Amino acid sequence: MTAQEVVIDQALARLATDSYYEFVKQAFAVLEPETQYLDNFHVQYLCNTVQSMVERVGRREPKKRNLIINIPPRAMKSVITTICIVPWAWIHFPHLKFIASSYSAALSLEHSSKARRIIESPWYKRHWGDRYQLQGDENQKSNYENTRMGRRTAVSTGGTVIGKGADIIIMDDPQDPKGVRSDVDRQKTIEFFDNTLSTRLNDTVSGTFLLVQQRLHDKDLTGYLLKKDGEGEEKWQHICLPAELSEDVKPARLAAYYVKGLMFPKRFHPIFIGEQMTRLGSAQYAGQYQQRPAPIGGNIIKGTWFRRFSHKDLPEKFTIDFYSDTAYTDKSENDPNGIMAYTVIGGFVYILGSSIMHKEFTEFCSHLEKWTLAIGRDTKSRVRVEPKASGKSIVQVLKRIPGLNIIEAATPIG
Q1: Tell me: the pLDDT tens digits for 116-175?
Q2: How far is 180 from 214, CA to CA, in rounded Å?
Q3: Residues 6+ apart with CB under 8 A from 148
Q4: Sequence-separated (6 or more) residues with CB below 8 Å from residue 359
Q5: In the prediction, which pLDDT does 297 show?
Q6: What's residue 142's pLDDT?
Q7: Number of C-alpha atoms within 13 angstroms, CB side, residue 155?
Q8: How far is CA 325 from CA 64, 292, 343, 375, in A?
Q9: C-alpha 110 chain-centroid distance
Q10: Is the dihedral of CA 118, 119, 123, 128 positive or negative?
């Protein structure tokens, strides 16, 4: 290299040392020398999040939450969370130990080999080769150690990690997409975390779990952990980045970075999205790309069955009826209460409005009375309540209110 090239090379190395985001961009050329790197806001955001996690663990500071990332495939999720993380972390904290798991041994080994390829590259050795070396007797595809006591162990879901502990445990696509519809396969993934990985942290105060996956089922590992442990200020920080803008973006402020409703327009452009929806079908697309395991179009009730209407299509006078599906509590992790306003004219059902909310029993009864009246309930209206959860009790209470024609509906079947 010329003197000028040396200066530029060293300056770039200093940037990569200080910034995991810069490291990932430069390391991409080592991993994919023939592929053009495509930058996007989510790369920087995820890199900064991972960097903060690594630095906290490296300093042995207590954690507040573990981390879940849900993101579409081919959005650099493994590069950021599983491959580049160890080479960069060892620049600063070569003592850190990692366990990285995926649904198959082949995928786990591929991630492990790519991480080692970075460490053994001329680029990496030139700038950080003096900080540690890989141990010759512990330099395997599935397990390698460095001379500063750091270690990276690769394992597949259901594999053995006896005698191995870690400071950071990574679960990258722990569920095989082919087995996602199998209760047995999903339970195997959950039990591997509960019974094996959850016991492998070296330090339970500072050690961290990182789960990154595309959503495949509402009862996959992400769904299980969020339902069991909670998110928000509880045990899991939840980052969710659907390919198309939706209310599921987490944190919500990241929605401002979507371009024309697209998370990664250079890769997930409208033509590609259309092709994937056709190829995968609504259910698979909704999970893998929208991070919403239940499809937008519906599994049983299809969105295409519905048409829009204006109120001028309705007669001047008609009776509005209501249907209510109730829940037990106001907790957001449980199913919500729902009320639908509708009328039937000429064999067609016209849905006039709906109200969905999490409320306790007494609050819901008051809400139902006021909301149905506001939308047009009269003495001819019937309010059907599904007889499950708190439904029977609601019927008994609301029957006492004059002018409120409460009916216990038949339990839906099929």
Answers
A1: 999 999 999 999 999 999 997 666 788 999 999 999 999 999 998 888 999 999 999 999
A2: 12
A3: 90, 94, 95, 131, 132
A4: 330, 337, 367
A5: 63
A6: 87
A7: 23
A8: 37, 22, 17, 18
A9: 23
A10: positive
Could you tell me the strand order of the sheet in which 236-240 lies?
Answer: 134-139, 143-146, 151-156, 97-102, 168-172, 208-213, 66-70, 236-240
Cis peptide before 72 (omega within 30 of 0): no
Q: What is the DSSP-derived secondary structure letter of residue 58?
A: H
Surface-to-core class of residue 299, CB atoms within 10 Å of its CB (0-12 exposed, 13-18 middle, 19+ buried) = exposed
Determine the pLDDT at residue 20: 98
Contact of 311 with 371, CB cutoff 8 Å: no
Mark the ranges of the chain whose per-residue pLDDT is less than 50: 332-333
Both tokens of residue 179?
A: 């087995």
Tokens of 2: 């010329």
The pLDDT of residue 390: 66
**CA–CA separation, 407 and 383 (whole Å):** 6
Strands of 406-408's sheet in order across: 348-357, 337-345, 321-325, 383-385, 406-408
Structure tokens at 206: 């500072």
Asked if residue 150 lies in contact with residue 97, where contact means CB atoms within 8 angstroms, the answer is yes
The Cα-based distances of 393 to 355, 360, 364, 372, 399 in angstroms read: 20, 12, 12, 18, 10
pTM of the model: 0.73
Contact (Cβ atoms closer than 8 angstroms) between residue 79 and residue 32: no
Q: Which of 43, 40, 45 is nearest to 265 (CA)?
A: 40
Contact 154, 100 (CB under 8 A): yes
